[in-house]
Amino acid sequence: MEFSFSSKYPFTSEAKQKVEGSSLELNDEIMERAVQRVVAALKGEKEHAYRLHPSDELIELGSYAAARMMLAYLKNRFLTGRFAVAEAKRASSFMRSDSEENIRKLGEELEITPSELEGRMVLPVSQYVSFSPRSVDYRLIFRNVSNGFVDVKRPEVIRLMEEAVRIKMESLKPVQSPPKIIQEYSKKLMILVPKEAVMKMSFKEGDNPPCIEKLLEQARMHQNLNHQARWALAVYLLSKNVAMDKVHSIFSNLPDYDEKKTKYQLEHVVKRGYTMPACATLLSYGICVADCRIGTPLNWKGKVENWKKRKSSSS
Amino acid sequence: MEEKEKQFVLKRFSEYYRKANIEVPSVEQREFGVGGFEKKIESRHMGFESNAALQNYLIKDTPLYISHSIAYYKFPKATPMENKGWTGGDLIFDLDVHAGLFLTKEEQEKVRGDAMRLVEDFLLSDFGVKKDSLKMVFSGNRGYHVHVRDPAYRMLEGEARREISDYIAGKGLDYRSFFSSPEEDKWKTYGPKEGDRGYRGRFYRMAVKVLEENPSAIHRRLLKPGEAALLREGMRTGLWSKTSIKDIVERMEAVAKMLPVQCIDVDTGVTIDTKRLIRVPGTLHGSTGLIAKELKSLDNFEPYRDATAFGAEPIRIEALQPLPAQEFLNSTMEKLEKGEKKEVPLSYGMYLLLKGAVTLSS
Questions:
Q1: How far apart are CA B303 and CA B139, in angstroms?
Q2: Which of A142, A145, A148 sits opposite B152 (nearest CB)?
Q3: Backbone dihedral region of A226: left (phi > 0), alpha (psi from -120 to 50 degrees) or beta?
Q4: Which of A229, A215, A205, A189 is CA-nearest to residue A76?
Q5: Greater confidence, B261 or A141?
Q6: What confidence tens digit (pLDDT) does each residue in A254-276 have?
Q7: In the predicted model, what is the mean pLDDT of chain B?
Q8: Per residue in B70-85, pLDDT tens?
Q9: Residues of B in contact with A147 (CB under 8 A)
Q10: Handedness of CA B82, B88, B89, B91 (dihedral sign)
Q11: pLDDT reported for residue A200
Q12: Of B126, B133, B155, B264, which to mutate for an interface test with A (greatest number of A Cβ within 10 Å)?
């Protein structure tokens, strides 16, 4: 039996209408599924772990909606971020083998509408830059761009759609006083969430320039960092001789944290011996936040010491 | 600047606004900010119901600088920013040159040429922007602003705008990324091919040109016509490893060196800021007294001739610093020594006064 469009993509308007048109009420079964859904996301379990039998479509849709309501109520960025990544990955695992018709339908919903132009698959530039992952492979600069369109391949379109789902999942309408059952299960959910998963920070800050402080702050708030930001932060911390496991624990705060990948990437940074990029480079990445005039973030300490000296000599 | 000079300047600005025709599209959805002799933006979060109300303000409460948001808001006057209700924004490009008291002829030509290439090669060609949604404006000081009001680009967030700005500025452009060798066919090198677009296409066309005109810049072996023809044939379909030259990618460095020439140094900070305020086209720039002039075409535009606002009525000035001879208003303004007094045309006098290079003299 096939999964319906709605259960594969519970964030679509079609799914929403189905739930609203049914007499579905939040009950313990749905709520337990919803909790399971968030916990699975948190553990980074593979997407199929919480797939139900296709005949349970309404429970599936209800559990998704309930999970969203709990997240909106809890306002926990870490949970929301992890859930967004998991739901996006779940959706894209369906997309990869889905029919052209369904992909087109989903694309319209996500505002990613590829078309064919002289035998090539193309996407409007504005859609492409809105959802392209921030990795070198997707940089516009290396792409065939003309007349407002970028050449793309089908797997790339799906990757962009995955990103669009993630972004969609991250925006939640605030809920002040949700139904009682949501409040109850939200409490239960928080008990199931390991404490250290919500606050994994283990780095004493203070001696870092504003850009690095901001990245650390974003990590602490469980916000997503783009590729360049992660790389800059890793190179900075490792250049400062911060222990590998400490750096790792900082990255474990990120919503799409994956232990193996993080380990590999950090080791890669060490192996390749990357040096800290200049402030000008960080400026072009949008990472620079202040006009410190230190050339590279690594010079921050010297600058602070100079200030102190000047202050003490002038007083 | 002394008080009487400030009054003099603002009175002339006000007179200009009496005759000017300032039209901001969707004026009621824009936030405005104004500045004076201390700062270019002293207060913001202002709004106008109509262009007539805006013009009335310019005549009566004449500011030295006025800018409007690139963004459209539901409530332009609301504070803080989150309460304005952002509903999109124009895509803006800012081109500038660092210059002394005046832009030299070379600086003028460089920045004008860049603005033309930005419009022709990038916005119209690569990004498919419709001509009628483009507005080209002389900034009133050292460069140009290009406003794109194409609905396709209106809703882009800052990061998406950065991707476009980086593309135009060629940030992170490494030609090696155009080439790849498949795992199963390591000795084959694939790269840009005929019909490619964007920088790949630019690179391809430059490579063809170098191969035709100066093949030894790539490799001496290409002086043999057979070898060059073989490479050319492969390139057409994107297979660059057809010849005996093993390090063809490295060899293309000679071509890659020409690539940055095709990029344009746009100010990324301006393009990515979706809440930016930008000089209102048609208004005066408070550091020059020149008009931030909207231009139908950039051909033959010369700021010191075509963007002046006050004509040639004489005023008497005293130079606070040595002034070089300078083309202005279609004639040559004479060189002045420090402390020298002279009658000069009003437009030129205003420019110098606002640059702090002269004072009014009796």
A1: 10
A2: A148
A3: beta
A4: A189
A5: A141
A6: 888 888 888 888 888 888 878 88
A7: 93
A8: 999 999 999 888 899 9
A9: 125-126, 128
A10: positive
A11: 44
A12: B126
Name the maximum alpha-carbon separation found in chain A. Answer: 80
Interchain pair A139, B163: CB under 8 A: yes
Number of H helices, E strands in chain A: 16, 4
Q: How far from B243 is each of B177, B182, B217, B234, B248, CA to CA, in Å?
A: 21, 18, 16, 9, 9
CA A155 from centroid of its chain's CA atoms: 19
- Among B122, B133, B166, B178, the strongest candidate for a mutation testing the A interface, having the largest count of A CBs within 10 A, is B166
Classify residue B29 by its DSSP letter: G
Residue B244 CB neighbour total at 10 angstroms: 10
Question: Residue A205 is encoded by which pair of tokens?
Answer: 């800050």
- Contact between residue A110 and residue A163 where contact means Cβ atoms under 8 Å apart: no
> Per residue in B120-144, pLDDT tens?
999 999 999 999 999 999 999 999 9
Contacts of A129 in chain B (CB under 8 A): 156, 160-161, 163-164
pTM score of the predicted model: 0.80
Distance between CA atoms of residues A143 and B200, nearest Å: 7
Unique residue bearing structure tokens 């993080």: A262
Tell me whether residues B272 and A130 touch, CB distance under 8 A.
no
The residues, ordered by sequence, that sit 6+ positions from A254 with a Cβ below 8 Å of its Cβ are A81, A219, A222, A224, A225, A230
What is the phi/psi pair of residue B79, to 5°? -130, 155
Q: Are B288 and B74 in contact (CB under 8 A)?
A: no
Residues of B in contact with A130 (CB under 8 A): 155-157, 160
Averaged over A92-116, what is the pLDDT? 94
Least Cα distance to B174 among B89, B97, B259 occurs for B259
A–B CB contacts, 8 A cutoff, strictly below: 80
Distance CA B346, CA B281 (A): 22
Give how far B151 is from chain A: nearest CA, Å: 10
CA distance A150 to chain B (A): 9
Position A58: which residue type? L
B124, B127, B271: which to substitute to probe chain A, counting the most A Cβ within 10 Å?
A: B127
Instruction: Give the integer Cα–Cα distance in Å for B55 and B66.
Output: 11
Q: Which residues of B touch A141 (CB under 8 A)?
A: 166-167, 170-173, 198-199
Query: Partners of B32 in the beta sheet?
Result: B46, B68
- The span from the CA of B303 to the CA of B289, in Å, is 11
